[in-house]
Amino acid sequence: MNHTQLTELAVKWLKRPNSQNGHGCLISASELRSGWDGEIPDAIGFRLDGNIVTSIVVEAKATRSDFLCDKKKEHRQSGMGDYRYYICPEGLIKPEELPEKWGLLWVNARGHIKVISGAANTFGGHWQLKNEALISLRFAGDKQREQWLLVKILSRVGDVEQMNRWIKESKLIANRVIKERDKLQVELKTLRLQIWNSTHRVVA
Question: CB-based contacts of 121: which residues, under 8 Å, 6+ apart?
């Protein structure tokens, strides 16, 4: 399992719902420069919790040496991500080796992810344990960098206003189609009832 494969799995995992031990991110992407020197998250995801944006960073490590060097970096405790994880081949990193508050994801030979530690390890369980983990393991993520990163991601989409209009137009068309479908269903039901009555009419 190499670094690229681990990163691809991390991007997919970030979108998993809580019921599947993921963070349920609406947006996830890999290896995006953050506008500052130093930190380029291997994978980062963003989800909405009510009116609050929550960020999750996953760092991929395919070798022991890479992990041991990486965990000493200053931005591992002060960079992006309200929640942070390492993802690695099964057994490569031990939970007791993690920096404070970091989670751990193991990937087996078949590419399946197992949450070893971190907030996601409580998802699907008792709500109180989940909330306690979310509070105790949360970092003070660098929101300025994250905002810059989100704007950069959005700029790559192209003309944002044009896309916004397309979405609005698509919704209008969809609503018209739904109304027409409902109307046709009522007419079909009425027609079927008329046919049934005509074929089952009792002759006096």
Answer: 21, 103, 115, 133
